[in-house]
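[Backbone geometry]
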Amino acid sequence: MPHPAGSTPVHDRGTVQGVTVPVPPGLSLETDVSPGQWVVDGLDEWTVDERTDRYRIGLVLPEGFQAYARILHRVEEGEWESGPNRIVRWDTIAEALGVTLQPDTRLRELSQAYMDAFGHRDVYGHESISDPDEGSLHPEELANLVELLAPFTSTPDEVWYCLWAGFGDWGGHTRKDRRVPWVGVPGREYFLYRGPLGRACGFQEMSETRPEHGHSPNIFWPDDRAWCVASEIDLDSTHVGGSRACIDALLDHPVLEAIEVLRSDPLW
């Protein structure tokens, strides 16, 4: 795969300007971060919406797509002595409570109301509904999403990946350390990687424990910019922008739970 002028790919675990940065197999760490500038330019300003006094989804996903959706990270419930936990859909919890999922619904609020109403606790009295992962898709969710997105890009072998530079197991770099170039948005700095769509799982595979304890890409998009995926590190959901057909396929997916949103909808 050719690299643009000024780009220095670093394979496996590499060093740039004396800084060691993990690099998943099959991906390259890019020091020319200009391919990410379109994302930065397409985001809303980091200010609250004057109408709602809340932040908007446009802070994490660039403008320009026909449609947008929010993937609700998986939730599990079960008792420690009853075997493996089972996956519970957010809409199942909402239906039991007689409420409708909204673009800014938070699972923590739903699950607390659910347990208050139905007393769901495990045998030790702990909450039996788990909090969804924040900032990362479960490996199974990521695999399903990658499979869904593949037909909706003409460049599946050329995908750009952003991973937050502040993760402790990724070096815990801060904005004070600029020896490794990164894609910078308000409040976040991301290392930029490149590789095929099939290697989106590479970051999680580098987890020292289990893949589900690793990180899925925080932002990724194909070179033709046909869609864009954003998993903001503090959110229990992943947002996707794409064509109408792409988002419809996501909304109809039998495993991934998603709801349609607008960039102007509240983020949290």
User: Anything to note?
Assistant: The two ends are 39 Å apart (CA to CA). The chain has two domains: 14-70+134-261, 78-118.
